[in-house]
Structure to design on (384 residues):
């Protein structure tokens, strides 16, 4: 069960609100060296285990002074799931690095209570401390990030990216591989022209041999379907629900050397501060294993990327937070390998985020294709 023996707000409400704003301000204005490079796992877990609900009850929490009294069933379920994941990962890390010291546990507990306001946030701090063998202030547990930071930054505007068909209208960019949309029983072109099934099939036959169909609100590689042209069944596709049909992208040879069976994506996270300045806060290269057709959260490998240079860091991390220096299936060594055309990726992120400033932080899935061109597979704003 979730740890709730300790009251969430033992200090006065104004003090907690100030600390919450301080954490959010830190997220918008932190530097790469201060958080992400020294503690890559904080943002890694934000990438893998972010909020999947639509609203925040922070104000109610502050008013009632009690976390457990304000927690709805969805809140309980969310934090319980987060706790189970954290404990499972902590157990794996400790099997390799040994039991976490009491000093690190106490530091995590104190920080969770004094700064974040609830001891239940300490579990992910245990994970980060166990992996790094030290405790660092400014780490943001994913359940705090998802339940406090994200709702305060975005409100309902974070849900916009869940609707794939809005992408072409918002960005008006050829960088996205979107081909046709299926929305509420209608097939639509990227210009929102209504298409008949016959017209869709004719368009399919003129294009590539392979397509990707992504259902709206697809997360962590789920509800993504790789479709061969000769097996295209429009009736079955409609039964999957609203989504986007994208052209399959042939990735750059550099990325293919890491894993040829699926397309690797660079997840770049950008934020916009209170002065309207956009900056990149983290980047990971996500690659799959040999048994996957696309990158999935349950089996991916996340490799930290220095977003100033595009160079891969020494370690990649499995979903169990196990550090590896090379890909287990291809033996590709990560350290100091440079992602091609990476500067253009960063420039593209800045340009695109200016189009949607109403969502303060965005995760962009970028790909470099076979011709060294930048492509944007998707953008996620609800949980980043």
């Amino acid at each position: 069960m979730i740890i709730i023996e300790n009251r969430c707000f033992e200090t006065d409400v104004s003090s907690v609100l100030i600390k919450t704003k301080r954490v959010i301000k830190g997220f918008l204005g932190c530097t790469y060296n201060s958080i992400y490079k020294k503690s890559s796992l904080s943002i890694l877990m934000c990438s893998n285990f972010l909020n999947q609900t639509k609203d925040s009850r922070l104000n109610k929490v502050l008013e009632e002074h009690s976390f457990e009294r304000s927690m709805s069933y969805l809140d309980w379920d969310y934090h319980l799931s987060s706790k189970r994941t954290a404990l499972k990962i902590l157990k794996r890390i400790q099997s390799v690095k040994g039991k976490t010291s009491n000093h690190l546990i106490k530091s995590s507990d104190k920080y969770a209570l004094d700064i974040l306001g609830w001891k239940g946030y300490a579990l992910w701090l245990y994970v980060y401390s166990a992996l790094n063998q030290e405790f660092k202030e400014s780490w943001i547990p994913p359940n705090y990030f998802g339940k406090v930071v994200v709702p305060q930054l975005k409100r309902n505007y974070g849900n916009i990216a869940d609707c794939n068909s809005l992408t072409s209208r918002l960005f008006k960019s050829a960088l996205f591989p979107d081909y046709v949309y299926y929305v509420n029983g209608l097939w639509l072109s990227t210009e929102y022209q209504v298409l008949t099934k016959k017209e869709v099939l004719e368009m399919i036959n003129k294009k590539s041999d392979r397509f990707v169909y992504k259902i709206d609100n697809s997360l962590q590689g789920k509800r993504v379907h790789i479709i061969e042209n000769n097996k295209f069944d429009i009736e079955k596709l409609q039964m999957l629900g609203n989504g986007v049909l994208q052209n399959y992208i042939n990735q750059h040879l550099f990325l293919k050397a890491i894993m040829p069976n699926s397309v690797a994506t660079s997840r770049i996270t950008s934020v916009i501060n209170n002065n309207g300045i956009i900056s990149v806060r983290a980047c990971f290269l996500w690659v799959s294993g040999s048994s996957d057709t696309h990158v999935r959260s349950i089996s991916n490998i996340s490799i930290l990327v220095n977003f100033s240079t595009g160079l891969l860091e020494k370690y990649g991390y499995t979903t169990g937070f196990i550090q590896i220096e090379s890909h287990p299936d291809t033996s590709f060594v990560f350290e100091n390998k440079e992602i091609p055309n990476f500067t253009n990726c960063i420039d593209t992120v800045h340009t695109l985020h200016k189009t949607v400033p109403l969502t303060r932080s965005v995760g962009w899935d970028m790909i470099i294709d076979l011709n060294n061109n930048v492509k944007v597979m998707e953008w996620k704003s609800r949980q980043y």
Summary: The chain has 14 helices and 13 strands. The longest strand covers residues 278-287.
